[in-house]
Amino acid sequence: MSARELHIALQRGIDQELDGRFVDAETTYRQISGFKKNFPDAAYVYGCYHLTRGRFAEAWPLFQYRLKTGFYLKKGTMKLPIPFWDGQPAPGKTLFVHVDQGLGDAVLCARFLPWAAARVGRVIFAA
């Protein structure tokens, strides 16, 4: 598929989902998510779709593709020369947590800061 065809298919899937045609939307998303390396937007939207359906195990790996979309790559925090944390214990390290979506998401995720702080030395939270 060409880039134009992928964008058209993605919009079709979004429109199907908004119209309540969830089976059709999932079929469309599944077809275009196979192009995730070259079109991360498709994988990200499919991940969001899985989140709305409560399929978290399927959702999170696809949702992470948001970090490879043009929107995210333009963010200043994406240019920081620091690695992403994988959740493993890192005593004595500093974890920088920042808002990458809405403030509501930040409030909901803030409850996990004590858990993260117990696994690293220090947490900096930027909202």
Describe what you observe in this structure.
The chain has a two-stranded parallel sheet. It is built from 7 helices and 2 strands, in the order H-H-H-H-H-E-H-H-E. It is an alpha+beta fold. 16% of the residues are buried. The mean pLDDT is 90. Helix 1 (3-18) packs parallel to helix 3 (40-53) and helix 3 packs antiparallel against helix 4. The chain is elongated, with a radius of gyration of 17 Å.
Write the layout of secondary structure elements.
Layout: H1 3-18, H2 22-33, H3 40-53, H4 56-63, H5 70-73, E1 90-98, H6 103-109, H7 113-119, E2 120-126
Helix pairs in contact: 1-2, 1-3, 2-3, 3-4
Rg computed from alpha carbons, rounded to a whole number of angstroms: 17 Å
Number of discrete helical segments: 7
Strand order of the largest sheet: 1-2
| Topology pattern, helix = H, strand = E | HHHHHEHHE
Secondary structure class reads: alpha+beta
Task: State the helicity in percent bands.
Answer: 40-55%
Strand content: 5-15%
Number of strands: 2
| Intertermini distance | 39 Å
Average predicted local confidence, pLDDT: 90
Q: Main β-sheet: number of strands, strand sense, barrel status?
A: 2 strands, parallel
Residue windows where pLDDT falls under 50 for at least 5 positions: none
The gross shape turns out to be: elongated
